[in-house]
Write a structure and sequence with these properties.
- The protein has about 200 residues and is α/β, with parallel strands linked by helices.
- It has three domains: about 90 residues; about 35 residues; about 70 residues, no CATH class.
- Helices cover about 55% and strands about 15% of the residues.
- It has a five-stranded mixed sheet with strand order 3-7-4-2-8, with no helix packed on it. Strands 1-5-6 form a three-stranded antiparallel sheet.
- It is rod-shaped.
Length: about 200
């Protein structure tokens, strides 16, 4: 059976058109797939950049904290060294003479105490330098004040006359009690002395 030449060429043309249409459809979808792929990649890449910047900032903050901590430690060490030096300078006379005084007193127990008292003048100087004032005078009789005095006698009432055994100290600048004076109803026992040490409070 013979074929019609027109039908043959029509079939060829139809096949060619079908191939072109399919190729065009496939090719037209390629850029959309690439663009879609890029849209999926870009947010991940952007998020990675943000995380990297945050890590850098955190690392910088940690370095700054470490630097400030080291600086504070150095300043604290410097302040402590300055305080020790200034304190030693104020007490230099007492500290340098103290070992010799101890040796002399052991070898000469009858040495009058008045010969040693001048060594303690440096303590008065450092207390004045710090702004510390004594609370009361030794062996003075004063009205009991619980804000300034400390006693083991719980039944002592406010205003009752007591004797100062050991003076206390207060900061004259801050008006703060550093150490209360130790007081009692009776005078402390003083060996080999019959002298009365009661002093009226003024």
């Amino acid at each position: 059976m013979s074929q019609d030449p027109n039908l043959f060429w029509f079939g060829c043309v139809l096949w060619l058109v079908s191939v072109l249409v399919i190729f065009n459809l496939v090719y037209s979808h390629l850029p959309k797939k690439v663009a879609a792929t890029q849209k999926q990649v870009h947010p991940i890449k952007y998020a990675y950049v943000i995380n990297t910047d945050e890590e850098k900032e955190i690392a910088q903050l940690r370095q700054e904290c470490a630097r400030l901590r080291q600086k504070l430690q150095q300043q604290s060490q410097k302040l402590r060294e300055d305080f020790q030096y200034n304190t030693f300078y104020q007490l230099e006379t007492l500290l340098t003479n103290y070992p010799t005084v101890c040796k002399v007193v052991r070898e000469h127990p009858d040495l009058p105490a008045k010969n040693i008292l001048p060594l303690f003048k440096s303590l008065d100087k450092i207390l004045a330098h710090w702004g510390y004032e004594a609370i009361g005078s030794p062996l003075a009789q004063v009205p009991y004040n619980p804000q300034l005095h400390q006693t083991d006698d719980r039944d002592i009432t406010v205003g009752e006359k007591v004797y100062i055994w050991f003076v206390g100290y207060q900061d004259s600048k801050l008006e703060h009690i550093i150490s209360p004076a130790i007081v009692s109803r009776n005078l402390p026992p003083i060996p080999n002395s019959t002298k009365s040490y009661a002093v009226n409070f003024t």
